[in-house]
Write the structure tokens for this entry.
Amino acid sequence: MINMINPYTPGSGRKPGYLAGRFPIIQEAKRCILSTMNLFPERSIAYYGLRGVGKTVLLNEIEDAADELNALYEHIEIKENNTFLKDISLACQHFLSSMSFKENFKDKFDRMRNVLTRINISWNMEDNSVSAQMSDKPIIYGLSNDFTDLFVSLGRVAKSTGNTICFFIDEVQYIKNEQLEALLMALHRVNQLALPIIVFCAGLPKILKTFGDVKTYSERLFMYVPIDSLGEEDAIKAIVEPAKKFGAIYTTEAINEILKNTGCYPYFIQELCSNIWRMGTSDTIDVQDVINAIPEATKNLDDSFFKVRFERCTELEKNFMYAMVKCGELPCTMANVSSIMKRSVSQISPIRATLINKGVIYSTGYGEIDFTVPKFDEFLIRQNPEIQEYLNKII
């Protein structure tokens, strides 16, 4: 063991010992907050990318920036059981209670409070559905109007009291279309009125299509920023900088082996380097140290990062994913998957839709699909060696 303190931090949303490659993105977010604070509101920002690229870490960093700038902010993580309406309502209540106001602003304050009391949220435990009601009347067709009224009222209170509102919304791909439409319409009106509200959200690549399908003008409401694996130079910094604090160094061969094994994905770098650090016996980390740590790092990923998604799938869905890998190349086409499964495309389309909704796969183009988790195909081969046998026969 090099040191009792491990500077590498594999885990969900945990900040790494050195946050590499994201400084320009964070600086741009700060600029947008500052501009909004000075009543020159910027477009909101949607970050999108695969699992394990650090989208949640990025949101957390921008939250810290908002805190340093004294903006008001709330973090919302959308769950698959979809409590977004409840979460957004609670966030607005928190904002309201955080803003001090003078007597002549009381009418704006009361107006927003009245909107909040009109939106009653209920959760049906049987089907995990959330519904909203306006008084004693369902507001399925009035949700957009109430969201708009809520955001405009919130924005006017914020402007009157010299505050800026930042919403941070993670896992935005789970938001239901009618609720997303309401959010987009509310932001559209807020932008028209130049009110100090900005949204930073993060999700899987499917949000690009979803946002556009729900509202064609969404491209004017948001800047869409892709978050991908690190460039080689930044990946090297993510590897070596945390170790420097403890006087440890990596040989060039060791670094190259880590880059090859992890594909420069931030989460995989943290997992592998954490195991290298834990198993190491010297302040100089060589290629053999990396090779020794790979099996344990792979097992950790299989038992947590990969398996937690795999075990949520039915046997039919697993067979669909196996067929994707058997295509031999990703992204793969639905036509190839249907051929391998010996079913028509129309028969397997519902499976595709379910896996997309679960956030396991996504559409990369017309008729093409890929996994939302990097290296998921390699995990599936480890789970089912028959896939490798199949691939060997067709090569």
Notes: The chain is about 55% helix and 15% strand. The chain has three domains: 23-226, 232-309, 315-394.
